[in-house]
Amino acid sequence: MVDDNSPVYEARYGWDLKTTGVVAVCAGFTAVLLFSDTPPLMQALGLLLFGGGGVFMAFMALSRKVAFRVDETGVLLGGSPARYAATTAHVPWQDVTALVLWRQTVRSASVPYVGVSRREDAPALPGDGPKRRAVLERMVPVPADVAIASRAVTGWRLDQDRLATAVAHFAPDVPVRDHR
Fold it and tell me: Which of 49, 70, 88, 166 shows a CA-CA span of 20 to 30 A to 173?
């Protein structure tokens, strides 16, 4: 954990409004399924979906793993709490050309993201590959490289002012671009 006076910016998975709401809705549906005369197949599927989903969201919030970090070494893109080691990536400052705040919108829903624009010859990150790039180039409003080096701001809070302060402290020549 980083104190509030440190120039290091660190955000951890935890209980935000969306996570709390999803867990509460899942608990409500699970209770209804358990205490109603729902057909067994529907009950089993509902319990798997809502019970399992609620447990996973609670696990994510309780993990308190690092979701995003900016420090003297570069940018840590925290992975999914379920596969944290395999999906976490570190981008050293020498590979960073900008930090990018962006939003993925699908119909009326949108999810904020924070990503890293990197040098063209930077090493590949976990999950990078030609098939994923082809899909991302059609699906997101930022270049595929930025999307691959991005994390959704879900299950944690982004403090844009502290992020900008940390970037200015550790990499004053790296801009923070807001494309939301």
Answer: 88
